[in-house]
Amino acid sequence: MKVVIAGAGSVGRSVARELLGRDHTVVLIDRSSEAIRRDRVPGAAWVLADACELGGLDEAGISEADVVVAATGDDKTNLVLSLLAKTEFSVPRTVARVNNARNEWLFDDNWGVDVAVSTPRLMTSLVEEAVEVGGLVHLLDLGRGQAALMEFTVGERAEVCGERVGAVSWPGDTVLVAVLRNGKVIAPSADDVIEPADELFFVVAPDRVEPLRALLGADERPAGSFGR
To answer: Which of 158, 155, 128 is nearest to 140 (CA)?
Structure first.
């Protein structure tokens, strides 16, 4: 898979190293010559160019990319790049970094964004997930907002504590996808019993968040874009 990443800062470089470690082809674009440090990401191709200019994107071979990652520190640049990638180069998939949570509403398919990653929102979610018991925490939007990954840490008084997974009447369009117990990931079966301190991970549709919260007896933890 070929991935073009705009923004050779710490975020862009980290993503590039991870992808290279999985045997993908990576091109890094940055308009600052000081950011072009090939020794920092060996194996990546580098292009000194403005990610909002067609010439630079052509030089990066964006038309051959499977994915474009807009990872600059500027939301306007990330939006324009995503739109150009979709409309001018027909890139199949775009992932855009959201730097300011107030701009998150802009990052949708109208701007060519398939997946928006909000760093402030994600940090908030991870902090809440680390400390909250009894709250339904929104971790990540999936499928352009058609579903979300949510987490619930089971307290001793939780409605589902002590119940078998298969005996719980989960809301429609809600799937319990994993249980984290004592540091180990469990693929839940119908006979697994939910225990105190279990972390339950759900994929849930937007209109099923409130029924799920009611079933779990969960407090509201409005970290994400729905479930507020």
So the answer is: 128
